[in-house]
Fold:
Amino acid sequence: MSTAEVPVAARRGMSDNVRMRLQQLAAFAGLIVITAFFAVASDHFFNYDNLVNNILVSTVQIGILALGTTFVIITGGIDLSIGFGIALTGMMAGTFLITWDLPLGLGLLLTLVVGGLIGLVNGFNISILGMPPFIATLAMMLVCQGLPIVISDNGASIYFDDLPAFQDLSGGTLIPNFPNAVLIFLVCAVIAWFLLNRTLFGRYTFAIGSNEEATALSGINVKKWKIIVYTVAGVFIGIAGIISAARIGASPSAGKGMELQAIAAVVIGGTSLAGGKGTIVGTVIGALIIGVLNNGLQVMGVPQEWQYVILGVVILIAVYIDMVRKKSATAAG
Amino acid sequence: MTHKRWKVATIAAVAASSLLLASCSKASDNATDTSSAAAETSATAAETSAETTAGASDSAAASDSAGASDSAGASDSAGASGSAAASGSNVEPGCVPTTKEKPYIAIVSKGFQHQFWQAVKKGAEQEAAKEGATISFDGPASESDVQPQLDMLKTALTKKPDAIGFAALDSKASEPILKQAQEQKIPVIAFDSGVDSDIPLTTAATDNKAAAAEAAKHMAELIGNKGTVGLVIHDQTSLSGIDRRDGFVEWMKENAPDVKLLEPQYGGGDATKSADLTKAIIAANPDIAGIYASNEGSAIGVVKGVEESGKKGINIVGFDSSEAQMTAIRSGVQAGAITQNPVGIGEQVVAASMKALKCEGLPDTIDTGFYWYDKTNIDDPKIAAVLYK
Structure:
């Protein structure tokens, strides 16, 4: 962003807000269209069991990662460590709860702390040391890929069969016929929405992404808030790691490639990779689009190679819409 | 503004292309690749000396003997008996029998941290102790670390070993270093995935295709030779993934025409992804009778997916072994699984090296065997010995 650009408040005019909503609407319309298509194409797609127990459950981990990453991307950053972060936080949950036999509440809290620490280190490297987010979090991704194997016993997974209370975090049903994992995802989404739209933290997140320099000049401690943004994203990694471990056991190779799916969800939801713009509702819709696409194509029996191609094309379309939107915004402004 | 747009475009391109690449990425699991050398072997099997023993056979004969193993799993045909080294006609040209008291065998494997490789190491150490050899055992951190593995092979060569055991991650890339070994008259024994070259005297590996056919046979038995069967495969591009898919599919097509096979789905060996795949398969096919999982991560995922779907009566046949699979088999959720014999692979590497050093002939391939295990034989000492957690 050029320094000559007008400050945040002036730039985000009415017309821009309307465009933002249109983009969100477009994503939502996309979700409806895709869902309707699969409902017509397959007899086995549109029923409560498939929609909730299959699609929503499979979207939870990517969705939670995407929520945290939305904040990071709005500041103009990126976080690649979230995928293998699941492996590290999951294995730590196993270490706390099984190997060390700590009480459930304490173990969960410590796991979230580990997630927060991943983000804190990311934030420190990016904000204080001035490393590019892509490189700093790529390095952290490698750290998160290696440490779980170090922790593990020869790469073996840790299982929680003796700790049903922990497994219930994913598979239990506090509300009948509604898996807890999905409930936790919804709660996370509400919290993320509140943080982004109703707190100072959220406002600064937008400000940093729109124009970091102007934000710093107006007396806001940009470095501090950026560290907080990455730390919050790290706590979301911890939550996703807990859900993953509760569902299938803690594996040192869990979460592989999930960072890209989560980033894709954020982008499909209309959050700009250039920073300054984005919504939580959009991210949830983006994650659902990926979940519906994955499940729908599988239910239809589409060969896997085409599933990847179709997902890739959807991302390209979403990013193209984003770029066109921005071009017209620049022209209008 | 301009450079921001670049950033958008670059990151988007990376994200999109990475997803595409994901389809090509190799699952990092304990799976073993049958060598393309082994494929070559079957073509030239006719020329190969038919001199086979209980411990070894060329690849064509191996599939027979191993495939015939019954569900009791006590097929002695394979290398579980271990030290009975294979014989054949491959000898290092100009071989002079070693006079060394304690020959040194440098083994470079495809991995180190995973339990499968630890079991291979254990087998090699046992056999070395028995035959009076010293060994070293190295392997890269993951099965995509081609360059680090080549560095290990080079380092091993500088230590002037008497023989080398090698499981190539990339057989083309390792060819120049193996040539050096050949020039120094160091015999090379390939294992697990083999090397696509003439240099190794023999290859000790699991016949994945025959093993998958055995899995298909048990699946057909379980579902009464009819019904719909889903396939959750760990990888679409690695040889182990392809062989374990094709071996299963081909056996079914030939021997159980009433079994309807669904389009194979690929979970990358990732348990979570395989569980989601399984649930989609069950949703789309309410009449499903069985699901085949081609490796450890896939099997764990399939078991979880079936459990989460709440459907009863789906027969699960898995591959490899792990604590989770053993638990599922004991509790009856999973019918059974094929396990490889990693300890036997390790034993055969050392046994074949010792034979090579004595200038005794070796066959082109040594089938290290596989076993079917289920609730009835999981605690059988013979089976328990090859299961690893």
Observations:
- Residues 57-256 of chain A form one domain.
- The longest helix of chain A spans residues 304-332.
